[in-house]
């Protein structure tokens, strides 16, 4: 087993840089942290480069009874664990995971819609919202989430923590939304856009359907006019109190479970 005790070690420096989008894109790997995420990754048999953990964390990992490559284990010091951590209360275990979100809608040989339930994220900016929506879609049994090119990076540490491992259970696709919507429609999957517009059809007017694609708009600006124009239907969640609007992730959750 390899051991790394210094934060100045070149390998540790390179892994630490994975907290930044630029280096994630350059290396093709991202960093996950914590026993739950590492456990979910191992259960899903994802491709990974190394597992880094303190001696105490390695002992706990061994007790979980999971299959992993011992040749990829690296024992690290507490100082290295603190250096790599993006949380206040680290569990001192990390994994570098291969990025596999390379699917583009205009490459049907890699992926083609045929059936199912999907969520489309139109330029969402808040990492917590994106992660929560993906986790909710997973819990409701949806098939996947499509992220627009301007939606916050899926591999942002805050998104990772919010997803809680759901990224290993769903199809996650980054694509131009007009292309995605065209592909969904070609597969006879209806596309509904969520709008803050009382003139739109109310959510209760829609019956649950076997397949659907739900568009969730940007937190500040909502669904863009270009994307709204492509939707088959526009729907509105009634506001019964005095709040001006719903949080994007909450609104998404209501719609996701309505159609689940």
Automatic annotation (TrEMBL):
Q: Where is the signal peptide?
A: none
Q: Where is the RNA 2-O ribose methyltransferase substrate binding domain?
A: 31-103
Gene3D superfamilies according to UniProt = 3.30.1330.30, 3.40.1280.10
Keyword entries, A-Z: Methyltransferase, Transferase
Q: Name one Pfam family in it.
A: SpoU_methylase
Q: Which SUPFAM superfamilies match?
A: alpha/beta knot, L30e-like
A single GO cellular-component term on record = cytoplasm
Q: Does the keyword Transferase apply?
A: yes
SMART domains to which the protein is assigned, alphabetical: SpoU_sub_bind
The molecular function terms in GO held by this entry are: RNA binding; RNA methyltransferase activity
The cross-references to InterPro entries, in alphabetical order and at most eight, read:
Alpha/beta_knot_MTases, MRM3-like_sub_bind, Ribosomal_eL30-like_sf, rRNA_Methyltransferase, SpoU_MeTrfase, SpoU_subst-bd, tRNA_m1G_MTases_N
Q: Biological process GO annotation list?
A: methylation; RNA processing
List, alphabetically, the PANTHER family matched.
RRNA METHYLTRANSFERASE 3, RRNA METHYLTRANSFERASE 3, MITOCHONDRIAL
Q: Which family does it belong to?
A: Belongs to the class IV-like SAM-binding methyltransferase superfamily. RNA methyltransferase TrmH family.
Q: Kindly provide the name given to this protein in its UniProt entry.
A: tRNA/rRNA methyltransferase
Q: Name the source organism.
A: Lactobacillus delbrueckii subsp. bulgaricus (strain ATCC 11842 / DSM 20081 / BCRC 10696 / JCM 1002 / NBRC 13953 / NCIMB 11778 / NCTC 12712 / WDCM 00102 / Lb 14)
């Amino acid at each position: 087993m390899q051991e790394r005790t210094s934060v100045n070690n070149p390998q540790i420096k390179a892994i630490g840089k994975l907290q930044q989008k630029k280096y994630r894109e350059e290396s093709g790997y991202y960093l996950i942290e914590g026993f739950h995420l590492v456990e979910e990754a191992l259960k899903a048999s994802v491709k990974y480069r190394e597992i880094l953990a303190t001696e105490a964390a390695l002992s706990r990992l061994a007790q979980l009874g999971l299959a992993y490559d011992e040749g990829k284990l690296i024992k690290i010091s507490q100082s290295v664990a603190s250096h790599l951590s993006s949380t206040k209360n680290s569990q001192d275990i990390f994994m570098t995971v291969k990025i596999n979100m390379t699917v583009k809608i205009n490459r049907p040989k890699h992926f083609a819609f045929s059936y199912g339930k999907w969520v489309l994220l139109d330029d969402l900016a808040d990492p917590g919202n994106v992660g929560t929506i993906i986790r909710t879609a997973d819990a409701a049994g949806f098939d996947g989430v499509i992220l627009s090119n301007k939606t916050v990076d899926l591999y942002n540490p805050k998104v990772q923590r919010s997803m809680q491992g759901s990224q290993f259970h769903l199809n996650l696709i980054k694509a131009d939304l007009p292309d995605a919507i065209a592909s969904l429609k070609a597969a006879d999957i209806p596309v509904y856009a969520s709008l803050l517009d009382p003139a739109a059809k109310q959510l209760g007017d829609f019956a649950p359907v076997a397949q659907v694609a739900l568009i969730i708009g940007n937190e500040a600006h909502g669904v863009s006019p270009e994307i709204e124009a492509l939707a088959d239907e526009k729907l509105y969640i009634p506001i019964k109190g005095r709040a001006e609007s719903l949080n994007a992730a909450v609104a998404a959750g209501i719609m996701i479970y309505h159609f689940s």
